[in-house]
């Protein structure tokens, strides 16, 4: 955030000390940290912040908020994660509301790889906040000359667009890994985006949001870029190759949550369901393909 006092809080004191010494994040090599960025491993710093960006995997959000709720009351809490909690089936803003009822929840999502932003490459994202006045403050505070934030109050659309595109990206990766061709990937992106819309609209999302950066934009990026961990995870499944289990693959957990939601809401989401089964090693790639291709023909 340009011209703001920003502190990076991490859990691992050794890692934070090392970053303080080297002024570099080992995950983003060759990008020196801005001089004005402070680093700490002390959660006490949360009490001094007006805005807290929660940049952690979606499945970690609930326990993190529960542990630190006393320091977070009354603040603007911006979820940066893309997922649905597997236990509660809630999106990040509902998780925030439950854990810290006095906070204003928001979500930042859209097509962006951390490495691109760290390089200062042009990027556009969506900030969603139910309180539009707070949304405007966040939009101004978090935009920079190269990072352009669009604003909405539709948190449901933004969080479901961001969470579900990861599941579709895994499907596209599987298709690429199994060498099924670019046409098959385009079909999965299109029918996948239909599934995203179906579930998200049923849960109250504005259809327009799903055509925006957090929906179409992020689906397009994640389903086609080798930089995406979800896409690469799918490629590994498609090739029957191993994948480093320490890498965060949000779509694998989200697929499980979506499978439960589809069942509870009685919605047919065939691509998301086969991805959940593939991630759970319940079916082979050949069985996934047969399942999708043998479905009855229907209107588009
Ligand atoms: N890396 C990227 O390019 C982008 C990531 N995102 C989203 O941001 C979220 C986080 O992704 P990454 O930063 O890449 O993941 P990551 O795996 O690097 O995790 C980020 C941080 O969360 C911390 N963390 C992990 N478990 C935790 C826990 N239980 N409690 C507290 N902190 C914990 C990790 O130590 C790490 O410092 C994901 O939902 C991802 O989809 C969104 C856009 C781009
Ligand atoms: O959300 C992202 C890009 O917008 C990051 O994607 P991955 O988590 O698949 O790497």
* Average pLDDT figure: 97
Structural class: alpha/beta
What overall geometry do the principal axes of the alpha carbons give? globular
Provide the domain count.
Answer: 2
Order of the strands making up the biggest sheet: 3-4-5-6-7
Beta-strand fraction estimate: 5-15%
Q: State the total count of DSSP E strands.
A: 7
Compute the CA-based radius of gyration: 19 Å
Low-pLDDT windows of residues: none
Distance between the termini: 43 Å
The CATH topology annotation of the largest domain reads as Rossmann fold
Helix content: 40-55%
Number of helices: 13
Sketch the major β-sheet.
5 strands, mixed
What can you see in these coordinates?
It is a single chain. With 300 residues, the chain is of the alpha/beta class. The protein folds into two domains: 6-154, 3-Layer(aba) Sandwich (Rossmann fold), CATH 3.40.50; 156-293, Orthogonal Bundle (N-(1-d-carboxylethyl)-l-norvaline Dehydrogenase, domain 2), CATH 1.10.1040. The chain has 13 helices and seven strands. The strands form two sheets. A five-stranded mixed beta sheet has the order 3-4-5-6-7, sandwiched between helices. Strands 1-2 form a two-stranded parallel sheet. The relative contact order is 0.11. The structure holds 1,4-dihydronicotinamide adenine dinucleotide and 1,3-dihydroxyacetonephosphate.
């Amino acid at each position: 955030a340009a011209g703001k006092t920003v502190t990076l809080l991490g859990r691992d004191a050794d890692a934070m000390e090392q970053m303080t010494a080297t002024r570099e994040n080992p995950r983003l090599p060759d990008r020196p940290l801005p001089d004005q960025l402070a680093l700490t491993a002390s959660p006490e710093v949360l009490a001094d912040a007006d805005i807290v960006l929660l940049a952690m995997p979606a499945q970690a959000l609930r326990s993190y908020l529960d542990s630190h709720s006393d320091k977070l009351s009354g603040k603007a809490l911006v979820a940066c994660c893309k997922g649905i909690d597997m236990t509660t089936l809630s999106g990040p803003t509902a998780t925030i509301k439950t854990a810290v009822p006095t906070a204003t929840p928001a979500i930042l999502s859209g097509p962006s790889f951390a490495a691109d932003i760290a390089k200062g490459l042009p990027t556009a994202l969506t900030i969603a906040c139910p309180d539009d006045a707070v949304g405007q403050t966040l939009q101004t505070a978090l935009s920079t000359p190269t990072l352009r934030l669009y604003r909405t109050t539709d948190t449901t659309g933004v969080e479901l667009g961001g969470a579900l595109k990861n599941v579709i990206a895994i499907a596209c990766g599987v298709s690429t890994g199994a060498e099924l061709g670019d046409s098959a990937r385009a079909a999965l992106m299109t029918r996948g985006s239909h599934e995203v819309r179906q579930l998200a609209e049923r849960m109250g999302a504005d259809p327009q949001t799903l055509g925006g950066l957090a929906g179409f934009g992020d689906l397009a990026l994640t389903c086609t870029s080798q930089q995406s961990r979800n896409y690469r995870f799918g490629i590994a499944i498609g090739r029957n190759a191993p994948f480093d289990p320490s890498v965060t693959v949000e779509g694998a957990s989200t697929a499980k949550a979506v499978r439960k939601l589809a069942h509870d809401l009685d919605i047919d989401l065939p691509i998301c369901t086969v991805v959940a089964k593939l991630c759970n090693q319940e079916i082979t790639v050949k069985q996934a393909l047969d399942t999708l291709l043998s479905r009855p023909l229907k209107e588009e």
